[in-house]
Amino acid sequence: MRGLVVLLLLLVSLWCQAQAFYQTGKASYYASHFEGKLTASGEVFSNSAMTAAHRTLPFGTQLVVTNLENQKSVVVTINDRGPFIKGRIIDVSERAARQLDFYRQGIANVSIESLHQPLPPDSLLQKVYHQPRLILHKMGHEFMLH
User: Fold this and answer.
1) Of 1, 14, 2, 39, whose CA–CA distance to 123 is shortest?
2) Residue 10: phi, psi to the nearest 5?
3) What percent of the chain is modeled with pLDDT above 90?
C-alpha cells in the first residue's frame, strides 16, 4: 500500500508541474548594474539573454510574456528570484523588455503563462501516458490505472 501511495504522490506532483500557469500584472526589467552578477539559480546574468525573475516558479520554467498594451510576446526562461517591489510579477532582461517594447517606459502590464512543453521521453508520466494500462500488484491486490 505504501508503494501505491508513493506512486500516486509522484504522479500528482508531476501532473501539477505540467499544468498551465497564468498570471497578469506589472513587469519591469533588470538594471544594467546586474550584468555579470550571479542569479539565484547560479547562472551569470546577461541583459542580452531571454531570461527573467519570478518569485516562485521553478528555475528553467519557460514563460510566454505578453505586453497587454501592444500584444507583443516573447519567451523567457526563469533563472532568478524577484521582483521584490510590490505589484510587480516579473523582471525580464533588457533584451526581452526591448522586444516587448516597454524599455523606455520601464514598466508594462503583462500576462505571463507557462509555455507548453511535451514531457521528456524518459519521464515517468510520459511512460504512464503511453501504457494501455498500468497494473500494480501489492499484497494480492491488483490496481489498474487507465
Assistant:
1) 14
2) -65, -45
3) 62
Integer Cα distance of 39 and 32 in angstroms: 14
DSSP labels, the chain: -HHHHHHHHHHHHHHHHHS--EEEEEEEE--GGGTTPBPTTSPBP-TTS-EEE-SSSPTT-EEEEEETTT--EEEEEEEE----STTEEEEE-HHHHHHTT-TTTSEEEEEEEEPP-PPPTTSHHHHHHTSS-EEEEETTEEEEE-
Task: Please say whether the beta carbons of 64 and 91 come within 8 A.
Answer: no
Look at residues 18, 22, 9 and name the one whose alpha carbon lies nearest to residue 118. Answer: 18
Looking up cell 490496481 gives 143
Residues 41-93: tens digit of each pLDDT: 999 999 999 999 999 999 999 999 999 999 999 999 999 999 999 999 999 99
Cell 531570461, located at residue: 51
Find cell 497494473 and name the residue: 135
How far, in Å, CA of 99 to CA of 46, rounded?
15
pLDDT band at 21 (very low <50, low <70, confident <90, very high): confident
